[in-house]
Amino acid sequence: MMSEANSIFIRRESNVRSYCRSFSVVFDKASGSHMWDEDGRQYIDFFSGAGALNYGHNHPIFRDKMIEYLMQNSINHALDLHTCAKRDFLNSFEKIILKPRSMPHKIMFPGPTGTNAVEAAMKIARLVTGREKIAAFTNGFHGMTLGALAATGNKYGRNGAGTTLPNIDRYPYDGYFGNEINTVDMIEHFLEDPSSGYEPPAAFLLETIQAEGGINVARNEWLRQLTRLAKKIGSLIIVDDIQVGCGRTGNFFSFDEMEICPDIICLSKSISGFGLPMSLVLMMPEYDMFLPGQHNGTFRGNSLAFVAAEQAIQLWESVDFISDIQRNSQAVSVGLANIQRLCGEGFSVRGKGMIQGLKCPSSEIADLITKNAFKEGLIVETCGPRGEVIKLLPAINIPTSILQEGIKILSNSVLAFAAIKEHETV
What's the CATH number for 74-317? Predict the structure, then answer.
């Protein structure tokens, strides 16, 4: 029963609210990998703002730098004016992220959210190639504005558009028909057949790991083959690294070590390091084709986000920081493998790095497990076509002891579900 003080949420907030329906408390404070509700109860956060808080809540280095910046009456809103904050971020991003990878990409600030980045990337691809169609993939998720939503596969989200969603061809993602079928071969066959109804697209838009789509991991060779096909037919490769970039897979970019260099890359969510609105489009220099002001936005110059982002980027100079992520990734893999053994038939583990999940036999089972976990102090969500995958998104720098405590809560929640089912069958 909601208190009178909290009835304002039901009385005035739109029915579109969603996450609060799964985590029905009023949160008050957060630090690192913990959140506290207004009654002082502590929760371990395996949700991380849907991937916007890869470095945890209120990272003290980022926070203190932003406070220092504010206390100096520095520029906060700047559109695309040159500012000290933007310059510092660009210099660090170039030095620490781009140059070591020999990436010549130009950087565009398209607006504050991931869907802004996707919209800009699609426009660039169309300008470059003169083609209208974008090739998207089954179970892909790219945002909720109309262009990005057209490329999104989720039926529930698409039904909210209120209009048709054109100029997208959808192809099967890697593994959609099982690993024995190479879907790039299928795509190439479609595009070579003059009667298939398919034409070469402006770009292939994809996630290397489909996060909302169920933690579907594309194989390296599949990505390399798709890249070769794109080059052959004059299409671009757009990698949407919004949820699985910024260290989520163990490296800064999800495609690091895959031997591909995307033409265009979309970043958002954790690029600011602090959950502040910020997004980037990285593009090969020859594709920097917008004329001044052809794509803009009032809030594309979030200086406070630049300050936090520059501090986050500096973490990537530390070998220890990167090795800690790899150690945490291994702990998640081991923990989920142990849980799978407890679950038995019908459950499977999927994912990579610090985005991994437990696929359940049904969404009902996944919901029961996550609801029980929340009661025991763990915030964890579900994903997948039917919500059947329990998705773990802990902070990439979470202390190992807290990570193991959260995995134990999840394990106990699975055991509690198993006990309920066993009781029902007796």
Answer: 3.40.640.10
